[in-house]
């Protein structure tokens, strides 16, 4: 039960940050924003690890440099999920970006079944299909004009979810390093890759013209990003991967609702139907775990 509550808290945090990325990205640019956010999160996790181990609140983990390199490797692959997510926001509404991204639910169920050997029933398969239908309604109903099925916004969103879904394979790395140190390695990897890509094509950043609203949003991105990253990685190694993926539906639903008010984006009737289908299916899946 504790792992489920922590998972919900993590998805609430990430669901909120999904909406907050838009304005800071527009003012700072994609890579500078990722660098600022990941660097601050890395420092928070690193200091927390040494403080918590020093006070003997958490045990000191035993690991090798090979463990760190392997962990950084899978985190590097996962990094491009965030990169493509922010790119997708240039080409489509937030409601569409977050909505269709829940194809990751299907990927998570498949990972739990085939990689971790978890049990899955015909009912769960059917309800996951219902969720996918709901997600499709959310994406397709948001189009105001006829566009190619493989639009840039949709392609970037799908790529983001595919790369993000490598997180389902984090479990052995989290077990080896512990959740706090793992999160520190994750954020360090994200920051390092972003710096490398930024140096390839650097752009001038005018920090003086950043609005107070954007500064507050960056602060929230750091706080909620730290909270969400820890909660989800802690829960990931302490519960069923299939159930973890199912509860993840909370994140896009919250993002859709927040985007409606925060960015003044309207939700169509079909999007509301899609949200309802997703919530009901996720609820039934959760209670039949």
Automatic annotation (TrEMBL):
Pfam families (alphabetical): EamA (PF00892)
Membrane topology designation: Multi-pass membrane protein
Chief place of localization: membrane
Residue ranges annotated for the EamA domain, each copy included: 2-138, 152-286
Span of the signal peptide: none
Key word Aminoacyl-tRNA synthetase present: no
Swiss-Prot/TrEMBL keywords: Cell membrane, Membrane, Transmembrane, Transmembrane helix
Superkingdom to which the source organism belongs: Bacteria
InterPro entries: AA-Vitamin_Transporters, EamA_dom, EmrE-like
Annotated TM spans: 31-52, 64-86, 98-116, 122-141, 153-171, 177-200, 220-250
Subcellular localization, as worded in the UniProt entry: Cell membrane
UniProt-recorded name of the protein: EamA domain-containing protein
């Amino acid at each position: 039960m504790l792992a489920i509550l922590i998972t919900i808290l993590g998805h609430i945090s990430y669901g909120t940050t999904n909406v907050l990325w838009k304005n800071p990205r527009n003012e700072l640019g994609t890579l500078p924003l990722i660098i600022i956010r990941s660097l601050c999160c890395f420092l928070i996790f690193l200091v927390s690890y040494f403080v918590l181990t020093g006070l003997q609140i958490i045990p000191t983990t035993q690991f090798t440099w090979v463990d760190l390199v392997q962990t950084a490797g899978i985190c590097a692959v996962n990094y491009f999920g965030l990169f493509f997510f922010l790119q997708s926001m240039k080409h489509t509404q937030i409601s569409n970006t977050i909505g269709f991204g829940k194809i990751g639910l299907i990927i998570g169920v498949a990972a739990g079944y085939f990689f971790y050997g978890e049990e899955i029933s015909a009912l769960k398969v059917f309800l996951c299909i219902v969720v996918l239908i709901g997600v499709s309604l959310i994406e397709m109903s948001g189009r105001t004009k006829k566009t190619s099925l493989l639009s840039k916004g949709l392609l970037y969103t799908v790529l983001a979810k595919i790369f993000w879904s490598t997180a389902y394979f984090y479990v052995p790395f989290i077990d080896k390093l512990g959740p706090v140190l793992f999160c520190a390695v994750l954020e360090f990897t994200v920051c390092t890759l972003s710096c490398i890509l930024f140096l390839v094509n650097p752009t001038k950043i005018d920090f003086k013209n950043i609005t107070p609203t954007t500064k507050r949003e960056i602060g929230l991105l750091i706080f909620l990003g730290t909270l969400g990253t820890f909660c989800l990685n802690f829960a990931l190694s302490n519960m069923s991967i299939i159930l973890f993926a199912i509860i993840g539906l909370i994140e896009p639903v919250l993002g859709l609702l927040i985007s409606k008010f925060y960015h003044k984006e309207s939700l169509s009737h079909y999007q509301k139907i899609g949200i309802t289908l997703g919530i009901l299916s996720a609820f039934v899946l959760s209670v039949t775990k």
